[in-house]
């Protein structure tokens, strides 16, 4: 449950290098998966595993749509702690990772990533043109401010071979201090304006029951925050209440999130992709 603020205030407060460095340096040693710094840093480990499982299922679907094959050379932009690089290697792909935050790359190596990883920004990829068969961007460009998103996608297009495919998973709804989502149509228009052709796309992560719980909790938190007293004694009381509320919040989500994930295949077959929180897109150069 995040503090309230305007989108403009959030954008001003977001300094990408400092933000991701802090997350990497604050990663718990027990997080051997490397999920916490790149998914939900404040969430329990079980929740990040659930989200990772849902994303991996979506990526396998995207692989089929993109025609990913063993031996192909794939670049993972914003590779973070290397979770996708390790999977790409396990699936027989020749993987390379790039990330703008050196502490993330150190975590990737510490978590067992053995594929090549280099430091570099998505807007200035340190690779020659036409070098890769596939490029993957899993929830990366959404963290780049809107004016720079086109530059990042131009670079991903540049390093693809003719006929190469771009796999893009990005937010299509929501807002926060460090995310700059677009609608599904917005993502498609932005990438196709870079000279790419849409192969297909689908919605990812509906989690309807869990989203309802989160929205309800956020509404309650906002209402209680408006009426909170500023005295020292009340602050202690609020802190104790917040700890208890957090435990209850995650206890409830331990019910709603798995139930929502279990129902996801049915929901996907009924609702349009625009009802999901993310879109998964495949483009061809």
Walk me through what this model shows.
The chain is an alpha/beta fold. It has 9 helices and 7 strands, in the order αααβαβαββαβαβααβ. It folds into 2 domains: 7-205 and 271-284, Rossmann fold; 208-268. Strand 2, helix 5 and strand 3 (117-119) form a beta-alpha-beta unit.
Could you give a quick summary of the protein structure above?
This protein has 285 residues and is an alpha/beta fold. It has helices spanning 7-13, 16-25, 45-66, 83-90, 102-110, 146-159, 184-192, 208-226, 232-270, and strands spanning 73-77, 94-99, 117-119, 132-138, 160-171, 197-204, 278-284.
* Subunit arrangement of the protein: single chain
The overall strand count is 7
Can you give the helix content as a percent range?
A: 40-55%
Radius of gyration: 20 Å
**How many helix segments?**
9
Domains counted in the coordinates: how many?
A: 2
Strand content: 15-25%
| Outline type | globular
Order of helices and strands: HHHEHEHEEHEHEHHE
């Amino acid at each position: 449950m995040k503090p309230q603020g305007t989108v403009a205030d959030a954008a001003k407060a977001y300094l990408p290098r400092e933000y991701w460095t802090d997350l990497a340096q604050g990663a718990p040693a027990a997080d051997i998966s490397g999920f916490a710094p790149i998914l939900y840093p404040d969430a329990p480990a079980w929740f990040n595993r659930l989200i990772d499982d849902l994303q991996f299922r979506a990526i396998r679907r995207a692989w089929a749509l993109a025609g990913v094959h063993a031996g192909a050379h794939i670049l993972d932009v914003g590779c973070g702690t290397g979770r996708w690089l390790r999977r790409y290697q396990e699936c027989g792909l020749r993987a390379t990772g790039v990330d703008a935050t050196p502490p993330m790359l150190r975590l990737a190596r510490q978590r067992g990533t053995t594929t090549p990883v280099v430091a570099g920004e998505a807007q200035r990829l340190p690779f020659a043109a036409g070098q890769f068969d596939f490029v993957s961007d899993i929830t990366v460009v959404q963290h780049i401010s809107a004016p720079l998103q086109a530059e990042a996608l131009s670079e991903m297009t540049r390093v693809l071979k003719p006929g190469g495919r771009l796999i893009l998973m990005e937010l299509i709804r929501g807002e926060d201090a460090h995310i700059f989502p677009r609608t599904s149509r917005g993502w498609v228009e932005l990438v196709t304006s870079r000279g790419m052709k849409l192969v297909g796309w689908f919605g990812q992560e509906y989690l309807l029951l869990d989203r309802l719980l989160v929205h309800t909790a956020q509404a309650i938190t906002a209402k209680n925050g408006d009426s909170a007293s500023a005295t020292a004694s009340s602050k202690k009381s609020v802190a104790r209440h917040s700890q208890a509320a957090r435990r209850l919040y995650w206890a409830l989500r331990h019910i709603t999130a798995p139930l929502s994930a279990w129902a996801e295949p049915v929901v996907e077959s009924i609702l349009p992709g625009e009802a999901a929180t993310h879109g998964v897109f495949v483009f061809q150069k």
